[in-house]
Amino acid sequence: MEQTHILIETTVNDLRCMGDPKRAVHSQRFFKTGPGQYGEGDEFLGISVPDIRAYEKAHRPWSVEVLTLLLQQPYHEVRLLALIGMTELYKRTRSGAERVAILSAYLGHTAMVNNWDLVDTSAPGIIGEYVHAHPEEGNALLDHLAASSSLWEQRIAMVANWRLIRYGEYEPTLRLAEKLLFHPHDLMHKAVGWMLREMGNKREDLLLAFLDIHAAAMPRTALRYAIEKLSPAQRTYFMAQGKSRK
Fold first, then answer.
1. Burial of 189 per CB tally in 10 Å (0-12, 13-18, 19+)
2. Rg, C-alpha atoms of the chain
3. Do 90 and 109 meet the contact criterion of CB atoms below 8 Å apart?
4. pLDDT band, residue 200 (cuts 50/70/90)
5. Phi and psi (nearest 5°) for 43?
6. Confidence at residue 244, expressed as pLDDT on a 0 to 100 scale
7. What span is annotated as the signal peptide, if there is one (predicted)?
8. Of the candidates 237, 161, 144, 142, which has an alpha carbon nearest to the alpha carbon of residue 201?
9. Which residue has the higher pLDDT, 137 or 2?
10. Does residue 4 sit within a domain?
11. Number of continuous H segments (helices) and E segments (strands) in the chain
12. How many domains does the chain have?
């Protein structure tokens, strides 16, 4: 246990030394950390994502225990490191027990996966992979997360579909898009539209069928994201359908 705490302290200190105060100030603005904003109170060190990824790779192997403790740290970049490590370990391990431990740690600490970059880095490679491997339990988990009162758990559910789309599994995207389409937060409108767009890149027919039903009523941000890769004529048509939306 002492060795583990020394490793945690060393890792956090290393990242502190890598930080750039000017970048940290910019990140606090970019990730909306002010009072009443979605990232309220988050702390940044000011480290680029490529540098965090390089550090994670250089210091492998990571244990689930260490990554879980890093995920509980206050600094955003330390939590991002932990989530990158969890995602990479989930991909590389051949141990079913280790994957269960990663999934349990992730789901047990979703309160720390509390900004869109943290969600988008981890949800496809952990939750999406789990749903692909265990469709019945996984889809029940997606529905549970989508019904949460937490914006971030709801975004985890939606963005996990990015991996399922890669596998040609589209039903969860359509199901969750309908559940979350009228979410009050713009970040969910973006997530829903983004996943619909990714699905449409593979199955335009499914996207068009969804839009035929929902374009006239869906939030304008979600619509813009969803139609981004369609033809100019199609985009004009669907934007006209949704012209009454804000």
1. buried
2. 19
3. no
4. very high
5. -110, 140
6. 53
7. none
8. 161
9. 137
10. yes
11. 16, 0
12. 1
